[in-house]
């Protein structure tokens, strides 16, 4: 790869960056070269002309967890107060296919426990110890970050880019905002996010809040990564859609304004960006895919590193092999759950369930849920267990469901939405009904019709990070892999 940064500002510039703003990096990279000619036909001609000489490209997009240079007022305005570190907060590896007809973006979770590339820590002898992938920058800057990613993935990194909080906001505002859709209201006090269900046109500040939110569904870092991917998908659609074809000159002016929002290696020149973006003109959401490296163990505890994530090595190798061979991730069978199984994000054995009613229908549902690993309490219609099969709330629930309803009903206490979603995945046609006062045990009441059953597998990575097109991610952070 080319030198990472030029000039004396290299190290000091890198220290000012912040991970969540890498979303803006991706947008800026794909915006910087929008050229005012050709439209869709011109883009196809450029791709065909370059197909014989082009090669696939891998671009590492990173941002650092640093608030250096931000005033207290700016931190408050952007809702980014908190402890920082000189480490990468988010990393995305963007693969551009050799024929320029496809872009694959793979997120590398910041707490991934990997072996660093050989390096020196201060006065210590050179080593290649393990640690969280986000700490590679702290140990050796952009160079070690790139070499560690190359070692962990087996892929060559051709280019490197990064940006910061303020520039992320500028990028979104310069573009005219970002359109995001959510099926449910989202509220995260820590990120300053409070939005209703539906479609929203975000300015830069609100887009940043959406990208930073961790305490909404789906929760944690994987959920946050998916929301960042949604933002990137939305912006790519805007850049390569009808608006880009209608007024390419205006987008060229916008692209030039983006030039100050991204730092790159010295090989990713303006000319290279113009050429690449020209070849990518007309890229459809269906040909843009996003994924997160498959995780084998969550909350893997390591002395001195705390809670980490370990990769599912067989599936991670399959993912990176597909990129190395320039194949679509969605076509890779090893990245999907076993045939006939539906993935869920929570272990079914942690979810207590009670079956209401008696007879063959209730026994059939009970046996199917037990085979799927649910903690089914007592027998169908029997006693046993705690927290929600009997009492006033349960009686009210039973009266509240239509006695003659064809499909099953799942009743649960507010706050147990994730558990209800897992159960609903095993009962695909069941209706979910939150009930104030209901206990922690979920209740299933079979309908008058034959209850549809499904086999499930605990596979959080497939729910929150499986390969999905930008089209599929538009209003669904699971990309169609999660519950309805």
Automatic annotation (TrEMBL):
Biased composition (Gly residues): 381-391
Sequence ranges assigned to domain Cell envelope-related transcriptional attenuator in this UniProt record: 88-239
Residue span of region Disordered: 116-140, 381-402, 460-484
One Pfam short name: LytR_cpsA_psr
Family statement drawn from the similarity comment of this UniProt entry: Belongs to the LytR/CpsA/Psr (LCP) family.
NCBIfam families in UniProt: lytR_cpsA_psr (TIGR00350)
Protein name: LCP family protein
């Amino acid at each position: 790869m080319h030198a990472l940064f030029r000039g004396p500002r290299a190290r000091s510039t890198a220290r000012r960056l912040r991970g969540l703003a890498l979303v803006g990096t991706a947008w800026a990279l794909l915006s910087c070269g929008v050229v005012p000619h050709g439209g869709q036909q011109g883009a196809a001609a450029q791709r065909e002309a370059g197909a014989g000489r082009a090669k696939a490209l891998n671009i590492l997009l990173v941002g650092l967890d640093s608030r250096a240079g931000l005033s207290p007022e700016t931190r408050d305005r952007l809702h980014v107060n908190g402890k920082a570190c000189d480490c990468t907060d988010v990393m995305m590896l963007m693969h551009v296919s050799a024929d320029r007809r496809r872009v694959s973006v793979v997120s590398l979770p910041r707490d991934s426990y990997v072996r660093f590339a050989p390096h020196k820590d201060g006065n210590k002898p050179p080593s290649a110890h393990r640690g969280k992938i986000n700490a590679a920058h702290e140990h050796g800057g952009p160079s070690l970050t790139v070499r560690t990613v190359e070692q962990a993935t087996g892929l060559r990194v051709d280019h490197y880019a990064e940006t910061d909080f303020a520039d992320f906001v500028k990028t979104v505002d310069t573009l005219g905002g970002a359109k995001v859709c959510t099926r449910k209201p989202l509220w995260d006090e820590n990120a300053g996010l409070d939005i209703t269900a539906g479609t929203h046109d975000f300015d830069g500040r609100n887009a940043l809040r959406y990208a930073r939110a961790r305490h909404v569904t789906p929760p944690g870092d994987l959920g946050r990564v998916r929301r960042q991917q949604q933002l990137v998908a939305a912006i790519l659609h805007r850049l390569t859609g009808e608006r880009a074809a209608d007024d390419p000159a205006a987008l060229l002016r916008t692209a030039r304004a983006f030039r100050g929002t991204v730092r790159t290696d010295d090989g990713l020149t303006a000319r290279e960006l113009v050429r690449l973006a020209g070849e990518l003109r007309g890229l459809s959401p269906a040909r843009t895919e996003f994924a997160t490296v498959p995780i084998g163990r969550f909350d893997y505890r390591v002395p001195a590193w705390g809670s980490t994530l370990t990769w599912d090595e067989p599936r991670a190798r399959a993912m990176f092999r597909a990129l190395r061979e320039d194949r679509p991730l969605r076509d890779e069978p090893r990245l999907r759950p076993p045939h006939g199984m539906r993935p869920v994000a929570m272990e079914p054995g942690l979810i207590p369930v009670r079956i209401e009613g008696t007879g063959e229908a209730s026994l059939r549902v009970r046996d199917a849920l037990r085979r799927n690993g649910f903690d089914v309490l007592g027998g169908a219609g029997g006693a046993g267990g705690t927290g929600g099969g009997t009492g006033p709330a349960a009686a009210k629930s039973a009266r509240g469901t239509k006695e003659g309803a064809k499909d099953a009903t799942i009743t649960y206490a507010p706050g147990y939405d994730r558990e209800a979603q897992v159960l609903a995945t095993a009962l695909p046609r069941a209706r979910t009904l939150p009930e104030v006062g209901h206990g922690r045990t979920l209740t299933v009441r079979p309908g008058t019709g034959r209850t549809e059953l499904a086999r499930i597998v605990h596979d959080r990575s497939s729910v929150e990070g499986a390969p999905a097109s930008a089209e599929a991610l538009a209003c669904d952070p699971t990309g169609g892999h999660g519950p309805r």
